[in-house]
Amino acid sequence: MAGSLSGMFANQPPGPPPPPPPGPPGGPGPAGLIPPPTGPRNPSNTLVDELEASFEACFASLVSQDYVNGTDQEEIRTGVDQCIQKFLDVARQTECFFLQKRLQLSVQKPEQVIKEDVSELRNELQRKEALIQKHLGKLRHWQQVLEDISVQHKKPAEMPQGPLAYLEQAPANIPAPMKQT
Length: 181
Hints:
By secondary structure, the protein is mainly α. It has 6 helices and no strands. It has helices at about 1-5, 45-65, 65-70, 75-110, 110-155, 165-170. The protein is elongated. The termini are far apart.
């Protein structure tokens, strides 16, 4: 992906180079941490390359052997915070680049932005229509369940009701009470 976008970022202003890969434990910097980058940026580096390198540096700082062996916690925290801050800075620069390109596109080709908006609205309508159909299916299912329950309750209602209804339904061959002698 970086290769396909590399031409897009070549005209970016120079900045600091990406941090080098982590060295062996006890290397340069405090407790083997990567020293902050210095010097001019290599012109062939792009924002995508920097973003990728800073992302890798974040993971490298977390899995460094120095961290596993348990060096000073404050130095570890500082090193990790620096790597994360670098990643966030490059991510913001990348976001700004894309926002600038989006603004240029909206000025140069406003019809393209409208087409994208229409496409997004159509996709949203399709998604909502599918959601409505899903809910309608559930609604039909529960209506059927309620109807089935209603039919089951109507069957006993067809039988005679009242205080003597039980006796009317009982078999006629109930023996008569016996007389006491």
